[in-house]
Amino acid sequence: MNPLxxxxxxxxxxxxxxxxxxxxxSEEALIKYRVKVEIExxxxxxxxxxxxLQKVEASYxxxxxxxxxxxxxxxxxxxxDIESITNHDVKAVEYFIKKEMDKLGLTESKEFIHFGLTSQxxxxxxxxxxxxxxxxxxxxxxxxxxxxxxxxxxxxxKQIPLLARTHGQPASPTRxxxxxxxxxxRIEEQLDTLKTIPTAAKFGGATGNYNAHxxxxxxxxxxxxxxxxxxxLGMKHSFPTTQIEHYDYMAATFDALKRIxxxxxxxxxxxxxxxxxxxxxxxxxxxEVGSSAMPHKVNPIDFENSEGNLGVANALFEHLSAKLPxxxxxxxxxxxxxxxxxxxxxxxxxxxxxxxxxxxxxxLLNEEKLNEDLEKNWAVVAEAIQTILRREAYPNPYEAxxxxxxxxxxxxxxxxxxxxxxxxxxxxxxxxxxxxxxxNYTGI
Length: 444
Fold this sequence. Notes:
By secondary structure, this protein is mostly helical. Helices cover 60% and strands 6% of the residues. The protein is built from 19 helices and six strands. The chain has helices spanning 15-18, 22-25, 27-47, 61-69, 73-86, 89-104, 119-156, 176-196, 211-216, 222-232, 248-276, 301-323, 334-339, 343-361, 367-375, 382-391, 397-405, 413-422, 427-434; strands at residues 161-166, 169-175, 200-202, 236-238, 280-282, 363-365. The strands form three sheets. The chain has a two-stranded antiparallel sheet. β1 (161-166) and β2 form a beta hairpin. The longest helix has 38 residues, at 119-156. This is Adenylosuccinate lyase. Its EC number is 4.3.2.2. Keywords: Lyase.
């Protein structure tokens, strides 16, 4: 497909940024994961063994696994060709595997492919598994790149004084590195939560009760079998269930991803604001144009692009986490079509992470501007002065400083020093007060 003809920017404009997700959320990937689950299930039946599968030797297992390990786009197309006849995507996978088993000389055993299962046993194992793999192999590396950059900046700027702003107004000074560290800590804590959420799979037959399994082999503990099979795939077995997975853990995963995205939106907006305040300049890449009309502009487009994509991702995550756990009685088909979209919010998130990282890498600290704003706002040391006066039991210290700082006259280093001289305190205390500046009143 020509990217210029793509309806979604994930597969069009931003295709180069989201290509790593193809292996997890494309139609080809979904088919491959379904093939994997069907084959691993068949191997597990052989390992029980079911009486009719005792002759399937373990030497066949690597050959069977190659069917999904070496799965190609041509194989995926072969499945789609079968689906055009069956009009059923999972049944098409079953027929495809049976043809491959004929080639391996396993014709007598091929009817145990999809034995006792419903489509959702395959779908509700394949899709969560693909999401788990995508988060581990694509999402985490991109997020960790952003985290590593933030940690680097927090360290580089840990001694840089910064005029803080509460309600948009000058407030007690802080340090730039600490402000960045706040985002590091927030992201890491939510990432820890994300990592604790299990990836659950439903595996139990048409309505979750192993009806077909039990009627065919009543002496086998099928619930235990299902649990062991799902856990071997690195997942948690949901039981009991209806025909479908509850999706509660998947919803929790989407909510956790959404919270991390919200923190990143907060970061994007803060850095954008610092750029607008001239606290940061941006590295200029030769040939780039900041504005079609204003040649002087270097817009903070990376943070804007990130914020926009994170917003789209969160809207989709919100719908997924609210919709998927809700189904009529044992099952309706709304989950099927919605599950096909889970790659979209991950795609927008990956685009956003790359944009944030690109923006962070372009930042140039403008210490002169930071210091200029601190010098313009000597009033912020009033808090420090009145706190020390409280310590010294000075009468009405807050009111004394309030009278000084709320005049229309500009508060400067000189006016603060002159005010300190009027205080009835010792020379040592006056020297202590005069040593406080907007640059060094930054706390711990």
